[in-house]
Amino acid sequence: MIFGVLKESGSDGSRQKRKAVRGTTYLWPKKEIPYRIVSNTFSENDMLAINAAIAEWQNYTCLTFRRATSSENNYVSINNGGGCYSNVGMIGGPQTLGLAGGCRVKGIIVHELGHAVGFHHEQNRPDRDDFVTINETNIQAGLMNNFKKYPVEAVDTHGVPYDYRSVMHYGGYAFSFNGHLTIKTKDPQYQNVIGNRDGMSFFDIKLANLMYKCSES
User: What sequence ranges are listed for the domain Peptidase M12A (predicted)?
Assistant: First the structure.
């Protein structure tokens, strides 16, 4: 997509993002994502979670996450900044992936790495209105942008269907100010499915492999 300069905030109320970048400008060359750990405050358990999330992306796709060399300019800078957030795709130069205290669990890190790979949020897809209803009156002031529907020209779904189970989908109460649903699924059986932070879904894996043409590797 075209929104590589935008950041997202986590569903805990910190700042957030959107599903795959259109075109190749924001994809990482050679299917390699260089990164640096720039915080010395990550605990041993934090590092285990970061490494487990990276391993999940590497195990199910053709992407490689590797430590950036001292001469590289384009890389993901993983730090303990406020909130859970990341740029979308490669934007050029160092780009921050923030993991505040509440973000340092594998599923959330998988989600944030998804943004770095080039994924936007599932509920921002152009076809989202066929699958969910956004209850704008329940959303915290100033956070409506997290629920914006993007136009077809901005999002490339690669033919992958809307995915309630995506690790990139918000939960039903994301950014609610009153304890009521902000996202209601059109199919009630999926209401408690959205917001998965267990790991990548089948269609997350499929989309990443289509985006990066893994079958051609």
Answer: 19-215
Is 173 a member of any domain? yes
Q: Domain holding 63: CATH number?
A: 3.40.390.10
Q: Is 20 exposed, middle or buried (0-12, 13-18, 19+ CB in 10 A)?
A: buried
Residues 50 and 89 in one domain: yes
Active-site option among 112, 122, 136, 153: 112
Residue-by-residue pLDDT tens, the chain, 217 positions:
222 233 444 443 344 443 555 556 789 999 999 999 997 889 999 999 999 999 999 999 999 999 999 999 999 999 998 889 999 999 999 999 999 999 999 999 999 999 999 999 999 999 999 999 999 999 999 999 889 999 998 888 999 999 999 999 999 999 999 999 999 999 999 999 999 999 999 999 999 999 999 998 6
Residue 86: inside a domain = yes
Q: Catalytic site residue 112? A: yes
Does residue 169 have a known ligand-binding role? no
